[in-house]
User: Fold Exocyst complex component Sec8 from Rhodinocichla rosea.
Amino acid sequence: QVKENLLSCKMLLHCKRDELRKLWIEGIEHKHVLNLLDEIENIKQVPQKLEQCMASKRYLNATDMLVSAVDSLEGPLLQVEGLSDLRLELHSKKMNLHLVLIDELHRHLYIRSTNRVGQRGRDRARLGSLVKDSSPVPLMDVTNLSTPRKFLETSQFSTPGSSSMRDSSLLEIKEDTELDPEENSAVFMGILIKGLAKLKKIPETVKAIQDRLEQELKQIVKRSTTQVADNGYQRGENISQENQPR
Assistant:
């Protein structure tokens, strides 16, 4: 229809200016309608794309897509009645997305970081049993582990000018679609915080971390105690078997 209108414009160039103005306005209107239809088609695919991003833990892409879609549905497309169900669905997903991000943040803060320590201890215990060394197992060296605390402490005693570098590094964090998103815990937590900032849920995140702090630390102590007890029991069995006569 737009193409036909443009052809009519060419044919009516010799007509009055009012008719040309009318066709020009109609062309602008049709172009705007086409843009809105394209936007509606893209938004209709958001739930499926959002599910794929959440399944692959591409949380920053999911957050950007969801926030943009909700803004469009509550802005230029607010009067489109056919999108009311989709509007409610995406708005509900946006309200609940920060809960998923907070859970992921807690998992990396308290579980992933301590799992690396436990894995280091198990590797050393296994190495000690292979060489059949009766000396005590050396203490776990946690000084070189990349924990979230050390990610924050790198510039704790730096100059004021370098703090802006740290702040800008969070703004420049981007998701790499080819790598495992959880491979680098520090970058992954930066992505989670950036997503929470886009959702305007930083105050809720801080409150959730404060509320769950004691519970999570108790769970760390419980898991660590279980690991130490299991490792000690296993090592005691190995020593008792080695000391038995043939």
User: Anything to note?
Assistant: The chain is about 75% helix and 0% strand. The CA atoms of residues 77 and 185 lie 38 Å apart. The longest helix spans residues 84-130. Confidence is low (pLDDT under 50) at residues 131-143, 154-168.
